[in-house]
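## Example record

The block below lists the input lines for one assembly entry, exactly as stored, with component labels intact.
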Amino acid sequence: MAVTISDVASAAGVSKGAVSLALNGQPGVGEETRQRILEAAKALGWTPSLRARGLKSSKSYALGLVIARNPKLLGSDPFFPAFIAGIETTLAEHEYTLVLTVATAPGAEERAYRKLADGGRVDGVILTDVRHDDSRIGLLQDLKLPAVTLNRPEMPSPFPAVCMDDTDGITAAVEHLIGLGHKRIAHIGGSQAYIHGRSRRHAWEAALTKAGLQADLFVEADFTAPGGVAATEQLLARQDPPTAIVYANDLMATAGQSFAQARGLNVPGDLSITGYDNAEFAQYLNPPLTTIAADPLRWGRAAALVLLSQLDGTHNGEDIELAPPQLVVRASTGPART
Amino acid sequence: MAVTISDVASAAGVSKGAVSLALNGQPGVGEETRQRILEAAKALGWTPSLRARGLKSSKSYALGLVIARNPKLLGSDPFFPAFIAGIETTLAEHEYTLVLTVATAPGAEERAYRKLADGGRVDGVILTDVRHDDSRIGLLQDLKLPAVTLNRPEMPSPFPAVCMDDTDGITAAVEHLIGLGHKRIAHIGGSQAYIHGRSRRHAWEAALTKAGLQADLFVEADFTAPGGVAATEQLLARQDPPTAIVYANDLMATAGQSFAQARGLNVPGDLSITGYDNAEFAQYLNPPLTTIAADPLRWGRAAALVLLSQLDGTHNGEDIELAPPQLVVRASTGPART
DNA sequence: ATCGGCAGCTAAACCGGTTTAGTAATGGAA
DNA sequence: TTCCATTACTAAACCGGTTTAGCTGCCGAT
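Predicted structure tokens for the full assembly:
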């Protein structure tokens, strides 16, 4: 970046101001001069420094994303890569980049948001994995950092939300199982600290209640494979074990299915299983996993778009509602044993 | 960021320069004054603007990572999340952040690097998935963007490399299979455009040759699940099908294993299978997958460290060699059928 | 008594852009 | 012919830091 606006200015025989006007398509320079300036800029290979531009405009031209997850778990989560790719499809068309932070240690999350806010590293952040009583929304207000949340928090939040309702998918899964004759349908949920952990549980409960079945087979797990195994073991040890289990994600479902098979159970003969996420590997299991396919790419794209429009003041303040995830029926679900 | 250095200066009754000196621990201010300034800064909640600081120092305090992969595939790849988490563990201790770009469309990759270089958005980049005749290393030299590569490119490269040799792991896998009595050991490789696709193939070849076996059962695939299925089908259709297949990653191994089982083959009774990556789901397959465990977290940490030391001029120019990946034996490999 | 040197601080230049105020030239209307 | 408006441009201020040059007051050495 040795070449600056002054170099271009003197090369074109004009002042710095004229170069700036020409570059940004502002009126104030003649068409002929504008062309001469643009050619000089091209010849010198000049691109304006974002730092200098941002200094004047108080913008950083970057969005932030903080992921607070165990890296080991993250590696099997199909959500974030696709979500991030979605963000990128939006940013590719806007002079913005994404600053990503992975916060593993406890307390690292808040530090991460502060780090992004402090020097003005980002102009806004996208909040994923919203929790029940999420301290981040207060924090971000303190830091005066604009944000978008994935789904609407249960607490009051000044930030627009981009929503994808997971209720429908879980409802469809439960109804699918009921249609197959299952009466004892369990749910192994993710952490209930997350609002998506809760909403999936509530959807499962509601669907069972609506069908006149009891919603008593719930175990809270943590979205990890070992957690899924432990929860599955706990359910299968009951006197009245379930004939079907609705898992809150594919990783737990995979681990649970494997565990049940190792116990000598046939899937789906003895136990039907559903997941959530439609991970790439899910269709290559034995049997292939019935699961719920969200569209994280679209979610990321929409979230970035809303945040950007929020930043330039063109957002109308309303939440966005995206098309809900769909049930994908494969071979891990079958008729209930009679 | 309404509060600036001038506010702090007037609050402490000193000049801007004194505040700067005090903040950065430079000599030139008395101890008493320094304390007064720091207190004023704390009271006002002032943190210096990175933009302004960077304008003077010509630094952005950010590193870049461009991932050129299909998002769908990315979602099942355990490498990048852990690798990124590793980068973060280093950056957390150094006033740097990570700018991530996912380039999906062809041609988007070069645009991504240009976008990072142009406005001076990052001070350096980490190059992953190095290819055989990688155009990026020339590009980065043109852009004058410092870099670190993962493993040493086959072509001349001015950038330091952080290496993790995948040879040992593959060799160990092949020797493990030979020890189990296998004679016909195939390899389903990733794209040979990648140097890690090539090195894995060469390691497989070398191990077989060393044992006096023929290395004729190779199929090039693309690291994807459908690709793994197609390659597996091709191998199993041969007149002399393999009794063991060494896959270049877990996703292809998973898909291949599932395909073989659907064909009625017993794993490992009829066919032994090994993967690469040690994805979280790999141990929850049926049977659990024998695979090769790398340490992407450590790799990311080391890569970021080398790049940072390169940026501040303290790097000695030598490549770093990390501990090689290890074979993890599980139940997808067993004695050869006789 | 005078001078040199140093500690402690301020003023101002500087980084590379954007933006505002101001100037010169041109054209049209009165 | 005079005056005003408009166009095309320049000079300079500005963003918020860092850094250099310079100033002041005090000390010890000559």
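Residues 1, 4-6, 16-17, 19-21, 24, 26, 48-57 of chain B lie near DNA strand D (CB under 10 Å from a C1'). Chain B has a mean pLDDT of 94.
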